[in-house]
Amino acid sequence: xxxLLEIKxxxxxxxxxxxxxxxxxxxxxxxxxxxxxxxxxxxGCGKSLTMLSLVGLLPNRIRATGGTAMFGGRDLLxxxxxxxxxxxxxxxxxxxxxxMTSLNPVMRIGxxxxxxxxxxxxxxxxxxxxxxxxxxxxxxxPSPKERMTAYPxxxxxxxxxxxxIAMGLAGGPRLLI
Length: 177
Hints:
Helix content is 36%, strand content 21%. By secondary structure, the chain is an alpha+beta fold. Helix 4 crosses helix 5 (125-138) and helix 4 (109-121) packs parallel to helix 7 (157-170). It is globular.
């Protein structure tokens, strides 16, 4: 059986004026369909950079410089920006660590989830909003219908994180990071 995700020898460098600094060195991991994998380590050890590298979201001056990340027979690290945009959300969902920097503060929660569905799946607005409400219920948001019209600042930190989970699940990805 082929792994859903197989990372071999992943290295990540930060470009510096005095030369590159290696921040991730030779990560290997394999994840099969239906499996869960937890990555633990001290703060600053490269967990987030490793995951961000898979979907092409590394910050400026930081890049994956070696290894492979095979997903569905394709090396994520070799994909261009257009190819990665097609994978993000629809095939690989991503839940960012800090909801307040990921959620748009002037958009209602329901509209943000629906936007992901409209963009990723081409669903019309009304069905996308209905699905957004279902997703909020699925992740345990109380009174999801009422929460659809809330702004991020009106929700607790835990509820904002659940909104991010709903957004990560919205596209029906095969892999959720």
